[in-house]
Every structure is written in C-alpha cells, then in structure tokens.
Amino acid sequence: MCKVNIIIYTCLLIASVSAKAQEARSLWVGAELNIPFSKKIKASVAPEVRFANGESQLDEFLIDANARLRVSRLFEPQLSYRFYRFYDYPGRFFTGNRFSVGIRSSVKIERFRLVNLLRYQHQLINRYDYGYTIEVRRALRERLRLSYNIRRTKLEPYVQAEIAYDFTKGRNYEFYRFRLRAGFDYPIPKRSSLEVFFQLQDKLNTSNPLRTYTLGIYYNFDLVRNI
Q1: pLDDT surpassing 80 at residue 9
Q2: Side-chain half-sphere CA neighbours of 202 within 13 A
Q3: What is the DSSP string of 36-70?
Q4: Are strands 210-222 and 41-52 parallel, antiparallel or unpaired?
Q5: At 16, which helix (H) or strand (E)?
Q6: Counting C-beta atoms within 10 Å of the first and last residue's C-beta, which end of the chain has fewer, N or C?
Q7: Do the beta carbons of residue 97 and residue 83 sit within 8 Å?
Q8: Secondary structure of residue 116 in the 3-state scheme
C-alpha cells in the first residue's frame, strides 16, 4: 500500500511539473569495465561524460567505482563511490565526491527480470565561488527496472523508474527528482555489450521545475578471470 501511494503521488507530481516546467536536452556517453573477483564478489569502474544545451556543452565528467557481494538473488549489498566535476556557468566548475551503500534485489520470471536497487548516498560538493565551501547532501534513492529477453534474439529491452528523496539537514525533507527510462541492452562480440536509452527526468518540489530529455549510450566490457 505504501508503494502504491508513492507511485500515485509521483504521477501527480509529474503531471503538475509537465504543465509548467522548462525543458532541456542532454547526451550521456560512458563505458563500464566489469571485474569478477569471485563467483560472489564483483566490481566495476565506469567513466562517463555528460553534455547539455543540445549536446554542445560539456556539463559533467564523472567516474564511478562499485563493489557488490551476492549473498542471494534477493540480497546483494553494494558499495559505490563517485568522483565528479560539473559546470554551472561557462568557465566555472565544481567537484564532488559521492559515497553510496545499497541493497540490490532481483527476481526472474520466465523471460522477465525485475531488479530493485535501494541506496543511501552521501555527497560532498566542493564549491569555489565566494571562497571555498563544502556542501553536504544526503539522499535516499530507489530504482526499479523491468527487462525482457526477446526469444531468438540478443536484444533485451527494459523500462526503469527511479525516485530520489532528499533528507539533508537544514533542507526540506521531500522528493526532489524522478527519472523514467526506456532502452535496451545488446550483446556484441568479445564479452561486450551496448546499452542505448532515452530518459525523462523531472525536478520535483521546486520553484523552477525542469524537465530534461536525455539520450544515453554506454559500452560495457566484462573482464574474464579464472575464478
């Protein structure tokens, strides 16, 4: 019942945002190296660049590192770290560090796979305008992904939704972002795959609502080790 109420609330927020939101477009391009240390422990490293303003301006550069322990399909704790550098104005940039801890769960029903990721993240943003300051942000995020393996093909389309809740000290405790994504994964030779998606993102509970349309292209490579 709680999740149903959250979904209804989110849909109402999206409807209200879409009526008055400004719009933007972006392009995300990245690569990911997956490293298995054992049958239960896996890690990955993923650099990424993001472009804004019609894919003509570099908006953000980031590197993600992730480690995951597979206890069971329903319980996979994971740790993540992200370093990122982003731009607010031409010629002005800021850097940040993000630490995350989460639980990943997955269920497979015939050719469908449902994956849920619930995580807490702690961000440290280094700002250099009007002196040096460190801004601290805390958030809880949940992401749900449903994929389907098409029979007799390698194509695996998916839909994904994510909601983010801000509970930073001194700020309003509220939902601040919603993402809806549709895309596909396609295996290519030599332990690689290509992911392409289209994403809609809404800023919630703000006096300046913004809807961003994103095209994403990612290359994934699985490192094979004798384990």
Answers
A1: no
A2: 21
A3: ESSSSEEEEEEEEEEEETTTTEEEEEEEEEEEEE-
A4: unpaired
A5: helix 2-20
A6: N
A7: yes
A8: strand
Query: What is the rounded distance in angstroms from the CA atom of residue 45 to the CA atom of residue 32?
Result: 6
Q: Two tokens at 200?
A: 């809609």
Work out the number of other CB atoms within 10 angstroms of the CB of residue 183: 20
What residue spans of 21-165 are helical by DSSP H?
Answer: none
Amino acid letter, 175 = F
> What does the pLDDT look like over 108-134, one tens digit per residue?
999 999 999 999 999 999 877 666 788
Give the Cα separation of 126 and 134 in Å (integer): 5
The structure's pTM equals 0.86
* Closest C-alpha among 74, 80, 72, 79 to residue 105: 74
Q: All domains of the chain, ordered by start, with CATH? A: 2-222 (2.40.160)
